[in-house]
Amino acid sequence: MNKECTYDFSHARRGIALLIHNEEYDPTSRFNNRPGDNEDFKHMLEIFKELEFDVHPHRNLKSSDISNRAKEVSEMKDMHKKSDCFVCVIAAHGEEIQEGKSTMTEHVIFGTDGIPIQTREIVEMFDENNCEELVDKPKFFFIQVSS
C-alpha cells in the first residue's frame, strides 16, 4: 500500500473520544427530551473504551458547556501528540439555518438550554490552525441530530 495513503497508528495512545449526548432539555427551551439517548450513550461509551480510546463522556450540556468541553479537549496538546487520531460524537437537537440573505446554510446543534452552536465552531477547534498536534492524523466527527 502507498505509504502516502495511510495514517500512522503506532503512537502510544489510540486517542481521545469526546462524547456529548443531550437527552434532557430545559422545559423553557423549544425542544422535547430525546428519550432513548441514554442507551445510545452507554453503547458509545462501551465501544470507544473497547477500542482503547481515552473517553471524555458528557451528558446534558448547555451550549456554552459544549464549547467549553470541546475547547478543553482541543487544548490537550500532549495527549494529542501521543495519539493516533481523534473522535467526537455529538447527539443532540439540531437544524440547518440560513445565513442572512445568503443561500448558504449553517448546521447547528442545541445545548440543553436551547441555544444554538455552529457545528463548524466545534470542528474548527481541532483543525490545523487550532490543534497542530492533530495535523496529518484522522479526525472523526459523528454528529447525530434530531429536530
From TrEMBL:
GO biological process entries: apoptotic process; positive regulation of neuron apoptotic process; proteolysis
Q: Name one GO molecular function term.
A: cysteine-type endopeptidase activity
Q: Name one GO cellular component term.
A: cytoplasm
Q: Which domain of life is it from?
A: Eukaryota
| Database matches in Pfam families | Peptidase_C14
User: Taking every annotated instance into account, which residue ranges of this chain make up the domain Caspase family p20?
Assistant: 13-147
Name the InterPro entries on file.
Caspase-like_dom_sf (IPR029030), Pept_C14 (IPR002398), Pept_C14_caspase (IPR011600), Pept_C14_p20 (IPR001309), Pept_C14A (IPR015917)
Which family does the entry's similarity section mention? Belongs to the peptidase C14A family.
The family database entries (PANTHER family) matched by this protein are listed as:
AT03047P-RELATED, CASPASE
Report the protein name in the record: Caspase family p20 domain-containing protein
